[in-house]
Amino acid sequence: MLGSGVRPAQADPTGQPGAADGAERGKATHEVFQHGVASGDPLPRRVVIWTRVTPTPAATAGSGKGGPVTVTWQVAKDKRFRKVVSKGRFRTSAGRDHTVKLDARGLKPDTEYFYRFRALGQKSPVGRLRTAPRKRAALDNLRFGVVSCANLEAGFFSSYRGLAAREDLHAVLHLGDYLYEYPTGEYGMGQDNVVVRPHDPPHEMVSLEDYRRRHANYKADPDLQALHARYSWILTWDDHEVTNDQWKNGAENHDESEGDYKVRRARAHRAYDEWMPVRMDGTAALGDGTRLYRRLRFGNLAEVSMLDLRTYRDEQVSTLAPTPVPALEAEVSDPSRSITGKKQMAWLKESLTRGDHAPQWKVIGNPVMIAPVTFGDLPNDLIDPINDVTGILPGDGAPYNVDQWDGYTADRREVLGHIRDHQVKDVLFITGDIHSGWACELPLDTSTQPLYGDSYGVEFVCSSVTSNNLKDITGAPQLTPLVETAILANNRHIKYLDFDNHGYSVLDITPERAQMDWYVIGARDDAATPIEWSTSYATLAGTGRITPVDAPLEA
């Protein structure tokens, strides 16, 4: 009989026969665990663990080659696996690209564990994970690494290296654009699109094989592997996991020559489910759905609600001339248009008002900015050259970036109005996407600036890991102060803005306050580039306001 907490062998999720084939019985001479290990979506008594096996040298990602393999897994209290608390077997095959993803169960809340896999005579690297606290546990603090927008061709993942070196995090929040769909050379580093490291496949990913290969391409990175092995991740996607500026029925970077958009998206979602340590529709199993929005609770202190702002959104409004600004504003405020979709909107409002036993901090993992940003007072002779090479700022005289919540203002008013009407406190949006650092208060109405009234939450935006920012794409760092000054002067609820740096953030939450520290890297094309603290901002509990902080949190 198995001891307490030890899991029995797991049934084959692929439906393949249980007997091992010849490749499994032998011992591989090639590296089996080429893509590292990962864990994610921590709950009090279970955590998703992940790996991929390469059963033969020819069985590369997306190839469809290689027979079924049984992989054993263990979770232990110690690095040497003398105190195993959970274990089992998992059958994988080419039908799931030889990935392994399962819920390791029977764990204790708020506890650190070690995990590993075995197959074909080899052991995987050892990973560490930490379970979530009990539902109503009283916590002194939570600390998360925060990242988004990691383009492999545009540089090394030094931000992942910096976070992996820390010993003080509970988990990592990834807010989207984990990978990019573009062909090699189309979106590299800087104005000249320098390819620091080439994508595989070299063409744009469209087929299921393409998406699988690109995931493998990213997970071969040593810094990415190190951070996955060190901490559990909580992820959502933005657009590039499928293709640029996607919405529910199409995308800017999709045309008829690439086939049916929804078929393409289904391939991307399938590969994401295979290759990421996330639960879709609440499970680690494949093929049971594609709902990625979900909640993860951390005692009485915080609940993290991860949004999906691509799968259900209506198409972005057009900002192309000669659309007059009043007509554009009428479109972006049209209540029939949504960025969340009806079901997710109801779910989000429920996340914000969870009754008497709701956690104190409502942390919203938000792929695109919700804070209103008016660009209308920026001169066109400044905006237009920038938008010859990027979409970071709106073009053609448009006052908004309509890919953000600014393009769906009825939804934003519904969320912030819900917070106001129910007197919800301590709402914290943590955001990626825009390749820059921001700290913003969240007024319901900015028309009375600078006296815009109450703030119904705050938003902290992390910069990109590598993807180009304003300085990179213009090649003119002298422009950045002009843009930043104009935006800050016309958006008094925005307290901090950095268009020039890449890096990561660290979010620390206590009952008294939430603080974000921004860290910046040096040269993206230097794998050993230095990392420095840049700035910190905090919001005191119950205030909805932001103040600067003089020093980062102690590691």
Structural description of this entry:
It is a single chain. 19% of the residues lie in helices and 24% in strands. By secondary structure, it is α+β, with helices and mostly antiparallel strands. The longest helix has 15 residues, at 261-275. The chain is globular. Residues 1-24 have low confidence and may be disordered.
What is the topology?
Layout: H1 22-25, E1 37-40, E2 47-52, E3 69-76, E4 84-92, E5 99-104, E6 112-119, E7 122-123, E8 127-130, E9 142-147, H2 158-164, E10 171-174, H3 208-219, H4 222-230, E11 233-235, E12 246-247, E13 250-251, H5 261-275, E14 294-298, E15 302-306, H6 325-332, H7 342-352, E16 361-366, H8 380-386, H9 409-421, E17 427-431, E18 437-443, E19 455-461, H10 470-474, H11 479-490, E20 494-498, E21 503-509, E22 513-521, E23 531-540, E24 547-549
Parallel strand pairs: 9-10, 10-11, 15-16, 16-17, 17-19
Antiparallel strand pairs: 1-2, 2-5, 3-4, 3-6, 6-7, 6-8, 9-21, 12-13, 14-15, 18-19, 18-20, 21-22, 22-23, 23-24
Helix pairs in contact: 2-4, 3-5, 7-9
